[in-house]
Amino acid sequence: MIIHLVDGTYELFRHFYGLRRFNKGVDRPYGAVVGVLQTVLDMIENGDTYLGVATDHVIESFRNRLWADYKTGADIEPALLAQFHPLEEALAAMGVVVWPMIELEADDALASAAHIASQDEQVQKVAIWTPDKDLAQCVRHARVVQIDGRRKTIRDAAGIREKFGVDPPLIPDLLALVGDAADGYPGIPGIGAKTAARLLNRHGQIESFPSDVLGERRDLALLFKNLATLRTDAPLFDDAETLRWRGATPAFAAWAERMEAPRLVERCEKAAGR
Fold it and tell me: Which of 21, 35, 64, 168 has its CA 20 to 30 A from that of 263?
């Protein structure tokens, strides 16, 4: 079996701002939710029925206690934020496994799910659907890959090295050095991507750097590495078989009506009957 792990938060953002091109300034209350459901249904109709979706139930995590400027939900538009919890409920009603994260982030859920699934001998491949560079650290050879559905790219370990200049396990170290503006930490001043990759390929992880490379900035770099390191120990599931989609629940019809998307019910019924 192939396990598909979807970044629900990213998909919600993508559909919300994608719709902005057509909605004439009026955001449909469930517009982005419907878009995500359609994307997941496209996968199911394509035969990708072993899947789970990770979401940020709240836009804060333990990382906010480690770094005051770490990302929060403060700047998220209310019309988008209002669709976070409906997405989780609608996905569950559609029969899809959902992991709403509170203390951890959706990225940690994807990393944990990839780790658990890759340990299962029945699993042939794990596909993580997100363009987020954080998740590049989870790629392993050709067994765990990262897919950017919008750009139609699939990256295995060789692809990650080609893009970032380092192997997947060193991605947290790379992000620690160069920073991640989306997550709110700046990296180490004066170290760009090429310099960071050169240092990491020469010395290995930050902990192995000679003392004169970072000097007094070493502790800050290690803090940023802690922020960039995804947790893989969230107890999301025991058996990959539990991720198999078996059809929508009876509650989904009411959700489809509320979202003014009755066609979703028809598509679910047809997909479940195959």
Answer: 21
- Predicted model pTM: 0.95
| Domains in the chain: ranges and CATH | 2-163+231-272 (3.40.50.1010), 165-228 (1.10.150.20)
Which residues partner with 185 through β-bridges? 180
Buried b (16+ CB within 10 A) or exposed e, 144-177: bbbbebeeeeebbbebbbeebbbbbebbbbbbbb
Q: Is the predicted pLDDT of residue 236 greater than 90, yes or no?
A: yes
- The neighbouring-strand residues paired with 239 are none
pLDDT single digits (tens) 41-55: 999 999 999 999 999
- Rounded Cα–Cα distance for residues 267 and 173 (Å): 44
Q: Are 73 and 60 in contact (CB under 8 A)?
A: yes
Q: What mean pLDDT is reported for the chain?
A: 95
Q: What is the C-alpha to C-alpha distance for residues 179 and 176, in angstroms, rounded to an integer?
A: 5
